[in-house]
Specification:
CATH class: Alpha Beta
Shape: globular
Number of strands: 11
Number of domains: 1
Oligomer: single chain
Low-confidence stretches: 39-102
CATH architecture: Alpha-Beta Barrel
Order of helices and strands: HEEHEHEHEHEHEHEEHEHE
Mean pLDDT: 80
Number of helices: 9
Largest sheet: 9 strands, parallel
Radius of gyration: 30 Å
Distance between the termini: 120 Å
CATH topology: TIM Barrel
Length: 325
């Protein structure tokens, strides 16, 4: 009997040791699985905000910030097109909805290039002003280098526009100081418009900065166009949204106007910008005239510097005031 008891005791001890080892193994697996899951979620949800896809004129979307220059612009910057699903740039909105008033005459087509967002980038602004091209310049109100660059533009005989900030469809995009909104009563809008114009006193016309909601609102645009007409200014519709009524209402109310044909630098690559310049010249040849809009980016300066001979030889470059009607 004592021998049997000894054998049972040995078997019980072995079972206890095996159970203990199994428990430790299960605990190890649980800890390893917990660490792996934690690592997975740390990598997957790193807290990095998603990049906004910028609509390119080629019809493709590329994820990258629109503005990459070191000098800041006010507020959060919107894409040039404020809608994500506008049709392909060719043919552009300006030529889809309106045929030329007359057939293109023999000779060079007329081309105007407007540089928007002037006043925040001092160095690139100066470089663009120094180019041997009759570029037009649209200044944002209350920008830090506006007075200095406006004086230089005036001295060089360039067309100067007020780049008027207008309300966007998506409130996350901030047009910056001096923005007009659809909720403003006529007196408030008039007072703020007057302040914006005082910031760009040599403006002979204006175009919209952002403004997808404002330019699509007939009542707000009628109020604004009455102010533009009273000042004897012209209006260039930047066409930041396909629902814009700005151009049609301007003509209806007796305001000289034109529409943007091509955005030049949605993709800040000098080769892509030169491709857009080719498109601008092509459309100018088809319709007699065309308006391109660019921005004070280093890539835009470089592309225009390399392309200026072609612009002068293939087109008649003019200030945008020559193209309004």
């Amino acid at each position: 009997m004592p021998k049997v008891s000894s054998k049972k005791s040995t078997r019980k001890g072995a079972r206890k040791k095996a159970g203990h080892r199994l428990g430790l193994f299960c605990l190890f697996l649980f800890v390893a699985a917990t660490l792996a899951a934690g690592l997975y979620f740390m990598v997957l949800h790193s807290g990095k905000p998603p990049e906004v896809p910028v609509p390119l004129l080629s019809g493709q979307a590329k994820k990258k910030p629109l503005h990459q220059a070191a000098e800041p612009l006010p507020g959060q910057l919107a894409p040039l097109y404020e809608e994500p699903a506008l049709p392909h740039q060719a043919p552009p909105a300006a030529t889809r909805r309106r045929k030329p008033e007359k057939k293109p005459l023999p000779g060079k087509p007329l081309v105007a290039i407007v540089i928007d967002d002037m006043g925040y980038r001092q160095n690139t602004g100066r470089a663009l002003l120094a180019l041997d091209l009759p570029l037009s310049f649209a200044f944002l109100p209350f920008s830090p280098f506006s007075d200095e660059l406006q004086k230089e533009a005036q001295a060089r005989g360039r067309d100067i526009l007020l780049h008027l900030p207008l309300e966007t469809m998506d409130p996350k995009w901030n047009p910056g100081p001096g923005a007009l909104t659809t909720a403003m009563d006529p007196e408030t809008m008039k007072a703020l418009f007057h302040e914006d114009l005082q910031a760009v006193p040599k403006a002979i016309g204006l175009n919209n900065h952002m403004g997808s909601r404002f330019t699509a609102d007939p009542q707000a645009m009628r109020t604004l166009m009455a102010l533009v007409r009273a000042r004897g200014l012209f209006f260039l519709d930047s066409v930041t949204a396909s629902q814009s009524v700005a151009y049609d209402l301007a003509l209806e109310m007796g305001v000289k106007a034109e529409r943007r044909t091509v955005f030049l630098d949605n993709d800040q690559n000098p080769d892509k910008i030169r491709a857009q310049l080719d498109l601008l010249i092509q459309l100018a040849g088809e319709h007699g005239q065309a308006v391109g809009i660019g921005h004070p980016y280093p890539a835009t300066v470089e592309a225009l510097r390399r392309y200026q001979i072609q612009l002068r030889t293939r087109t008649e470059m003019v200030g945008v005031s020559r193209l309004v009607h």
